[in-house]
């Protein structure tokens, strides 16, 4: 044993090949925290000091190779000044460089997931072998930063600038064959022979069969591009990536600029260039907020895990009501290997649900994510039925019929009589009180809400709604089922609209008042999309369905009449009265036509303006900043109320619900983080400016108290 620590060990084989093994104690995964980096330095120094070492293989004792850096340490690091961050990074670069500079050949055996700093460690060695199921990548741009342990330098020299830019700016994980094709790894070897193959490769290099010194020199030299090639590669990439990333995500373009700058530099200069570019993006609010979202997501996963002990195992599910939503739920369950019954009252509904499931699986096959046999397996796990005959062994039933309390109560009561005494019923309602629906049931303790967002296969959030009589085991079982479906569950308490829709409708209320005051709805859409929303409120209402929106608005107004009841006829109501329901009827605020790919494309419809003229009772001068404030204040204040009312337990859950449920701009971190970043006092001052608009714009007493005490949500 040459070295033995809490993260790294080095053992020397009789063949002279040293194994540098990463095995972070008391952790299920390997990640680069400060202690691990310090130990890596000591381990490499121990290898360099041994005259018996002929070569080195780098391995992992975990199922994953290395998942990356310890993101929980980013906050403290990024709070430093830019110069301090650069200095800190250069120390780590010195360690990776010393591994690369060893006088003996080095080979990494990538046995599993190898991302971020883990892949940068692998890049510092001369050769890389990879198991077929392993994945590699540099996903840092998803956190608002880019690779900071030499990834931009080494990868660009190994696979070329074009490929490196694609890898780094997409942040995607690469499968073994793709990594081999691009030249990022040197071979793909079955897992059970991987370490032996790495050892053999190190021996071959040590014996002169492989020119490992040329490999070292290649990564330490300048990037082999002439001026014209460089101009073509970098300027074209910057334009393309900037258009794709958008103005709110600077890291991808900054990464390209760093690669462009250090292309003409040797390694030791290049890593400093990378470190300086990294420090700039690390100090942005975007990085702070995206890293914050990652940590909040980890918190949600840990919170959901706490329910596992009480959860009943879901081996078979059922969905009541086929159609688009029912078909989406059925597909999601079957795709995660949980067989599901799909019941409807007529053949037409069944066909619609099966068509939806078939469409979703077909798309996966077309994209190469599923094999044809997998598609058949998924569709075979969806069993359509017009009766309750096979419901005796179902563990969870999800009701997804029309959003009408009378119909839902009738269907739920009927279903309750067909399932086991201890089995769970859940409603996919988006607004109707779970407590109210439970009055139709004999066992309300076995009932809760399970609110999916549309489209089911894409939207990550599931709201698990606890009614007044819902038991902990019921909540736990539905949370566990949601996780099995690959969703992120958030447990919320019952109220009109629950969490996400309760917060969304004040946002639509702000929109309705802006249109009433004479603001062009297309201008509002453009301003809010520029702010960062995936679509503006008029377009969003068309996508949700204006009939659905009007129904939900009525529920919200009944539940919160002080601020959500409207004393004017809104443009949304006008669209509804003229049966302009949005995309589902091909016309709403916009008109919709199918493009060549069969997707609905929106176009301006002059008739919309004529219809809403009578309800535009004012003509208020408005800046873009005023539009943003009038849209965001009601949404943010309702989020505050949900937290204060105990609808959601934590600020983290509230913010993640909005990001995952309605596409709140991730780079802004969520509604409560948005208030924090503005400053609670400044947010209140902004709300005060619009206080005459009514209760939607009036803050809670507790929020005012927070401002006085300089408190924050995070």
UniProtKB/TrEMBL annotation:
GO CC terms of this entry: fatty acid beta-oxidation multienzyme complex
SUPFAM superfamilies according to UniProt: 6-phosphogluconate dehydrogenase C-terminal domain-like, ClpP/crotonase, NAD(P)-binding Rossmann-fold domains
Residue ranges occupied by any 3-hydroxyacyl-CoA dehydrogenase C-terminal domain in the UniProt entry: 497-592
Pfam family, one: 3HCDH
The protein's Enzyme Commission number: 4.2.1.17
GO molecular function per UniProt: 3-hydroxybutyryl-CoA epimerase activity; delta(3)-delta(2)-enoyl-CoA isomerase activity; enoyl-CoA hydratase activity; long-chain (3S)-3-hydroxyacyl-CoA dehydrogenase (NAD+) activity; NAD+ binding
Family statement: In the N-terminal section; belongs to the enoyl-CoA hydratase/isomerase family.
Keyword NAD: yes
Pathway: Lipid metabolism; fatty acid beta-oxidation
Protein name per its UniProtKB record: enoyl-CoA hydratase
Top-rank lineage group of the source organism: Bacteria
Catalytic activity: a (3S)-3-hydroxyacyl-CoA + NAD(+) = a 3-oxoacyl-CoA + NADH + H(+)
Entries under InterPro entries matching the protein: 3-OHacyl-CoA_DH_CS, 3-OHacyl-CoA_DH_NAD-bd, 3HC_DH_C, 6-PGluconate_DH-like_C_sf, ClpP/crotonase-like_dom_sf, Enoyl-CoA_hyd/isom_CS, Enoyl-CoA_hydra/iso, FA_oxidation_alpha_subunit
Occurrences of domain 3-hydroxyacyl-CoA dehydrogenase NAD binding (ranges): 316-495
Organism: Gynuella sunshinyii YC6258
NCBIfam families: FadB, PRK11730.1
């Amino acid at each position: 044993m040459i070295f033995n620590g809490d993260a790294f060990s080095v053992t020397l084989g009789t063949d002279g090949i040293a194994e540098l093994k990463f095995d972070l104690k008391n952790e299920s995964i390997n990640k680069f925290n400060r202690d691990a980096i310090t130990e890596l330095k000591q381990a490499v120094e121990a290898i360099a000091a041994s005259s018996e070492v002929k070569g080195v293989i780098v391995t992992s004792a975990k199922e994953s190779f290395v998942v990356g850096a310890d993101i929980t340490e980013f906050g403290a690091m990024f709070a430093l000044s830019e110069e301090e961050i650069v200095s800190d990074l250069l120390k780590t670069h010195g360690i990776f460089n010393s591994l690369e500079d060893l006088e003996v050949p080095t080979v990494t055996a990538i046995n599993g997931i190898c991302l971020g700093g883990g892949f940068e460690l692998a890049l510092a060695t001369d050769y890389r072998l990879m198991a077929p199921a392993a994945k590699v990548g540099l996903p840092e741009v998803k956190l608002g930063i880019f690779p900071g342990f030499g990834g931009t330098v080494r990868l660009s020299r190994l696979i070329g600038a074009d490929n490196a830019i694609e890898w780094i700016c997409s942040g995607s994980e690469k499968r073994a064959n793709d990594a081999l094709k691009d030249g990022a790894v040197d071979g793909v070897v079955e897992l059970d022979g991987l370490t032996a193959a790495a050892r053999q490769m190190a021996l071959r290099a040590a014996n002169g069969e492989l020119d490992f010194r040329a490999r070292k020199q290649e990564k330490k030299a300048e990037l082999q591009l002439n001026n014209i090639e460089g101009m073509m590669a970098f300027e074209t990439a910057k334009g393309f990536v900037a258009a794709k990333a958008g103005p709110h995500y600077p890291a991808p373009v900054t990464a390209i600029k760093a690669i462009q700058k250090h292309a003409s530099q040797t390694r030791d200069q290049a890593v400093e260039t990378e470190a300086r570019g990294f420090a700039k993006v690390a100090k942005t609010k975007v990085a702070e907020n995206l890293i914050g979202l990652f940590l909040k997501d980890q918190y949600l996963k840990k919170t959901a895990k706490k329910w596992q002990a009480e959860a009943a195992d879901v081996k078979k599910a059922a969905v009541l009501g086929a159609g688009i939503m029912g078909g989406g739920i059925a597909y999601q369950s079957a795709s995660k290997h949980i067989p599901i019954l799909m019941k409807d009252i007529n053949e037409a509904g069944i066909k619609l649900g099966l068509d939806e499931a078939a469409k979703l699986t077909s798309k996966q096959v077309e994209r190469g994510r599923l094999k044809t046999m997998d598609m058949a397996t998924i569709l075979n796990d969806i069993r359509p039925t017009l009766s309750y005959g096979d419901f005796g062994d179902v563990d969870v039933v999800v009701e997804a019929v029309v959003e009408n309390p009378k119909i839902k109560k009738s269907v739920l009561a009927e279903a309750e009589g067909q399932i086991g005494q201890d089995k769970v019923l859940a409603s996919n309602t988006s607004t109707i009180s779970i407590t109210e629906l439970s009055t139709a049931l004999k066992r309300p303790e076995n009932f809760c809400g399970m609110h999916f967002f549309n489209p089911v296969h894409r939207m990550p959030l599931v709201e698990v709604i606890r009614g007044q009589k819902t038991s902990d085991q019921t909540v736990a079982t539905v949370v566990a089922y949601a996780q099995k479906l690959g969703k992120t569950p958030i447990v919320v308490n019952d109220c009109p609209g629950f969490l996400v829709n309760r917060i969304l409708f004040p946002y639509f209320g702000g929109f309705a008042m802006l249109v009433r005051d004479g603001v062009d709805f297309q201008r509002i859409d453009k301003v809010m999309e520029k702010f960062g929303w995936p679509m503006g409120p008029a377009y969003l209402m068309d996508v949700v369905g204006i009939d659905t929106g009007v129904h939900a608005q009525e529920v919200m107004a009944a539940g919160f009449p002080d601020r959500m009841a409207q004393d004017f006829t809104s443009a949304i109501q006008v669209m509804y009265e003229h049966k302009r329901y949005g995309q589902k009827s091909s016309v709403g605020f916009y008109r919709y036509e199918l493009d060549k790919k069969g997707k609905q494309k929106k176009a301006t419809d002059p008739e919309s303006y004529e219809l809403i003229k009578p309800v535009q009772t004012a003509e208020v001068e408005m800046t873009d900043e005023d539009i943003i404030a009038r849209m965001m204040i009601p949404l943010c204040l309702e989020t505050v109320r949900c937290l204060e009312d105990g609808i959601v337990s934590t600020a983290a859950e509230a913010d993640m619900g909005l990001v995952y449920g309605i596409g709140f701009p991730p780079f802004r971190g969520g509604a409560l983080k948005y208030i924090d970043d503005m400053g609670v006092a400044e947010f209140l001052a902004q709300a005060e400016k619009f206080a005459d608009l009514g209760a939607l714009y009036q803050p809670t007493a507790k929020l005012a108290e927070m401002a006085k005490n300089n408190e924050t949500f995070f």
